[in-house]
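Render this sequence as a predicted structure.
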Amino acid sequence: MSINLLLNLQLGLVLWSGVGEQSPTPQPRYYDTRERVAATMTFTWAETCHIRIPLERIRAHNAEMMAYIHALAQSTKTPIESFNDMLSKLIIDENIASMIFELSNYYTIERTPQRTRIRTRRQAIDLHRAKVSEPLWEVESYLQGNLVISVHRDLSNGQVTAVYLAQCEEELVGWGSPFGDAQPEWMVLHAGISPFRLYGHKPEDWRLVTVSPEEWVFELPRKPEQEPNEQEDESAQNNQVRPLRLYAPSVRFHLDRRYQDALSRLEIRYADGTTYIWRTLRYKRIENVWFPAEVEMSAKHPSQEAVSKMVLVTAQRTKAPLKLEIPEKTPVYDFRHLGQQMWVHWGEYKPTEWDESLLKPPNRSK
């Protein structure tokens, strides 16, 4: 039996385009009932995360800082002792490797068929002071068609300080944000997006691995030609953003047949040994559809190891249109000209200032 037939007969794949043609905005097509219900929902999640920084990573960082200070001393013909104060602020205490940091993060994902807003409030680790930062770092991200709008605010007064823009040629729900503030896995696990959309893929791209009375298991094998080059790999690590489709990782997900094929497990594995694994611990029935309500994530990366638990706090209908309120003249870092390449590595941005015209499709005429 073909994968397409299996999806249509067994998974209840639904292509739902809405009713009526009054709106000029193209109506979305939903893969299943869960996507249709979630498209007008607001989900609030609370996360508790425990992170450990490996000793190898700390030593590598300290070696880089020592090399930088030596090079600076040589280029300025200054005694290296003159940089001792600067070096003390750059070096990380190796004892931090024995510490486990607990962070509290909060996510609100507000969805409408035309626009999604992700509000994140996250803590960060200050490795030089060996403590978790306060207050929480706040970012607003908007996914609108194929445009990403990332809005940054001042921690002290909440005022908008900068806007980042990116754009790809495909619908964003499976791509998320290249700025790391709206990962595509979040959209799948916490906002009702079908896992078949991950990294811009479609249902026919996935291979059915196993099937049982309890679950379906699908896989997206990693392709050798999608290996990153050195520049792409270094850029992704420096910006703490996981690369997506242009060199997609190995991906496998499990759908629980006992809960209307809700996602029960997601595994992301990279060639360098980096792994991310999410497991659904509990489900909740929302408008007659089962959704993940408690999710555990474990991550292993050269720069850190993490275990976190996310709990669904509220799920309700989105009550009002999602307005984009950005003051005129706000500084904008415009990466749209890079297209989908921005999801692989950061390139040069075009500085500009905010105005509503930036939401319009670019003029492609010569």
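Summary. Residues 44 and 314 are 5 Å apart (CA to CA). Confidence is low (pLDDT under 50) at residues 1-25, 225-246.
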